[in-house]
Known about the structure:
- This is 8-amino-7-oxononanoate synthase.
- The protein is an alpha/beta fold.
- Helix content is 41%, strand content 14%.
- It is globular and about 60 Å long.
- About 1% of the residues have low confidence.
- The structure holds pyridoxal-5'-phosphate (PLP).
Amino acid sequence: MADIFDKKPIAVIGEMAETGVSPYYRTAEPNAVMAGCNDYLGLATDPRLIDAATTATARYGTSCSGSRILNGTLPLHEELEARLAAFLGCEAALVTTTGFQANLAVGTLLGPGDAAFSDMANHASLVDGVQLGQGTRFRYRHGDLAHLRRLLAAAAPDAGKLIVTDGMFSMEGDLCPLPGLRELADRYGARLVVDGAHDIGLLGARGSGVAEHFGMPGAVDLLSGTFSKCFGSLGGLLAGPARIVEYLRYSARPVLFSAAMSPASAAAALTALDIIETEPARRERVFDHAERLHNGLRALGFATAPSITPVVPVHIGRSRLCLRMWQALHDAGVHTNAVVTPAVPRGRALIRVTPQATHTDEQITRILDAFAGCGRRLGLVAGRAERAEHDWTPVALARPKLTG
Ligand SMILES: Cc1ncc(COP(=O)(O)O)c(C=O)c1O
């Protein structure tokens, strides 16, 4: 008889055992530079968010102890939803317990006979959301509009069609081709869902995300997002036309059957929204750091393309080498993310570096120095003098317009 537990190997354990490197589930080292978290604006430790969370906890308690629909709705959730709808330029918004659940809820829109078209590099939560829905699923090659067009053209004309994509991709930091996606959605009568987990709060003149970055307000039919990145909190969101948000409010099982976002998280997210709306200098600062990292790493001989954003992917290649590089950086006091197979295709392992608005210039220098030293030791890049003979092109970052 087969034991089902014996059939569950951990995908990266082989490489971890061979290299003796274990970069996952590590607690942060107090003296290391944290260069691998998604708190791009540095708000998770902002005293204003901490105050708001403390006050809300004192007033409402530590937990809502139930789902939004029955007993878990607070004035804080309602205020957050109204503020988000205005900020994102949507008719309505719904806040969820996590961003993962917001994406799972997207699957609720897919009924029998419908068709979903997903970018192959979408976040796991969006993949699972589509998987939970009914109908047919198609995956188009990452950012490949020609491939998507062929799939849309081949779908049954009367199928309800949903195109789903990350706005800013979480591992390589590149942006979805929004203008082309909108054009295809219009041509084939599809609706466009964008997960703005990494770009809401960061991109665009007001920080409202990828549609604003492309100067295309209203281009997204349904937005999902999270408060665990730019908002320094925990929770998720869905925003779009009122009739669809209401439909999800009453039909999406990840919303209906899960306890509401905690009072502390909701209050922190509201305060973060105040800061995002009034302190564009934070976005300016994080893009300054990103530009320095991209250009500094490229000058050293590392490949950071195609990202143009504060998710800086440093391409290493083999998973084992990536784990060794992660360990070397860790020993040098810099905490990064090792992204290896199966999270990326074989041979495409990378170190993911993410600056924060609250990093100092010295900390960015420390990150670059660590990459230089570790990269040379592992033979990933040549020495500085040799490297100076090579050509490298500074990254022209497509920075968001941060004013007006
Ligand atoms: C692109 C993307 N979508 C959704 C999520 C899920 O968000 P949350 O952490 O709120 O569950 C994440 C977080 O890892 C993400 O990177």
